[in-house]
Amino acid sequence: MCGIIGYTGGRPAAPLLLAGLQKLEYRGYDSAGIALLAPEGIRLVKNAGHEGVMALELLAGKIGALPEASAGIGHTRWATHGRPTDINAHPHLDASGEFAIAHNGIIENYVSLRARLRAEGYVFRSETDSEVVAHLLALHYSGDLAEALRGALAEIEGSFALIVMSSRHPGQLAAARRNAPLIVGVGAEGEFFIASDIPAVLKETRDIYVLEDGEMVVATRGGVCFTDFAGNSRPKTVTRVTWDAAAAEKAGYDHFMLKEIDEQPQALRDTLSGRVAKSGAIDLGIAADFFADVDRVAFVGCGTAYHACLIGRELLEQWARFPAETAIASEFRYRQPLVDERTLVVAVSQSGETADTLAALREAKKEGARVLAVTNVVGSTVAREADEVLFTWAGPEIAVASTKAYTTQLEIMALLSMFLAARAGRLATERSAALLKELRSLPAKIEDILARKEQLRGLAAGLSDSSSAFFIGRGLDWAVALEGALKLKEISYIHAEAYAAGELKHGTLALVTKETPVIAVATQRALYEKTLSNVEEVKAREGRVLAVTRAENKELAAAADEVFFLPPVSDDLAPIITVVPLQLIAYYAAVRRGNHVDKPRNLAKTVTTE
Ligand code: F6R
Prior knowledge:
Elements: E1 3-8, H1 13-22, E2 31-38, E3 41-48, H2 55-60, E4 71-77, E5 92-93, E6 99-107, H3 110-119, H4 131-140, H5 145-155, E7 158-166, E8 173-178, E9 183-186, E10 192-195, E11 207-210, E12 215-220, E13 223-228, E14 239-240, H6 245-249, H7 256-262, H8 264-272, E15 296-301, H9 303-320, E16 324-328, H10 329-332, E17 343-349, H11 355-366, E18 370-375, H12 381-385, E19 388-391, H13 404-423, H14 429-450, H15 453-463, E20 468-473, H16 476-492, E21 495-500, E22 517-522, H17 528-540, E23 544-550, H18 554-559, E24 562-566, H19 574-592
Parallel strand pairs: 15-16, 15-17, 17-18, 18-19, 20-21, 20-22, 22-23, 23-24
Antiparallel strand pairs: 1-4, 1-10, 2-3, 2-4, 5-6, 6-7, 7-8, 8-12, 9-10, 9-11, 11-14, 12-13
The structure holds fructose -6-phosphate (F6R).
Residues 302-305, 349-351, 354, 357, 401-402, 486, 490, 606-607 line the site of fructose -6-phosphate.
């Protein structure tokens, strides 16, 4: 999500920090800042972008006014908690101005920490979750910066890569990680960099220490010292990075798409974080009366986001028995939709800038509907214009083909549906607890799928020479099939269509020959026999079937030519993991065909035209 960098050494820190942050620009960011450990104390410059001028450009114009210093920290922010404003930009200082922090990640328990610190007299300046760390450092400080950091770490829950410094310790940086990357770069004599990403330091050094979860580092001009959070020393060896700058931006991956597919377990963990209260109740951070008197829900979005809407509607209908519809945003806006002040319109958009989704949102508001946005970009137009927002915390998505934004949208759909079902008295506490437990287990299930990439690469090879493919499924599987087909067509350029499995025989079956791969998605137990029959229909026309299904579905596995087994999962939450093999099949097919995976022809990441 955010990019962080720290420097200690003999050269002026500000230009080095700025240059490092510029190398992280490709990841997307909205604000930037630098704090220097100057002899007269910590000096800070930070800002969001303004009026079309990027935040780093504005920052570059300010660093000349900073005093000379040979240690400091810098940050590019991708807003999650709090809008992209100058004040919310990092680094953050404690009230005394003696401690500065830069943070990447999410502090899950920031609300309770902030309340406690406020009660003890600490004054907060920003809306961020991160600022608590600066105050915690001050609270725990008794002469040793690393000890203060350990004290703070013992109190915070969530994910973090943190770099901290204090005017009481000139030339010293301390840093720690949990579920967010952090590396130390060894520069020239007595010079160390600490950063979230290798590209930030690659111009200065290729000698890197990689921190593991639960590790800390203290860096001074005299050297670096690695420990765990309890202070026990951790031996480490330097790794020599051989990637070129382009590969380094992708953390060694060939494509952003594969990197983003791999990031899904963490994106799901982050998106869930802080949204379940200790009592087990879902806390969406939205006042209860926002949902009062709602009697219908309409989900709107485009492309992949629309496919997430389809799942949202199903879950809401099943769990809450709420009348709900889905609409493609570009259709919704022109069809004089039946919405009024008792309608909740859920506008789903990764970018938050899609013109049709925005127009649908405005249309709905004009009719008096309440609009809830689900978006990945804090400060986006959809986020600003909606009445309430639920953010997916997937981090910047760079590949045009959406992957981690989709799975996190599905997670939000599940949370929202559970919340509304519980509110309507239709979701028993035990069922809700079971669903939440399963939501927490999904990242590990996706990791299991990701560990079987080679099998998926082989399956993709089998269809990459086809000119056409069909995806079939029923119920939630059909919605996932639609997303699988979209992924395949947009990056591999293979014609792909998804059908409700029962529809195939009403026309499309005429196109099925032995040249036609049919990807059958079958996770829904109540519909399994029916989908199996549809697969038999395809086999009778000599179509080639690749089944994505449960391990217990032996008849389907026997009928299909190839099969990919999913980890055990409930029917309702299956879509969140089922899509992952489909993403990977599309990815490997596109790579095999030599396509521009991250920037497919004719497509843009953000569609701001109607
Ligand atoms: C497909 C894809 C697009 C987007 C669509 C909406 O992989 O990314 O179909 O889902 O253009 O974009 P957002 O979600 O930004 O509104």
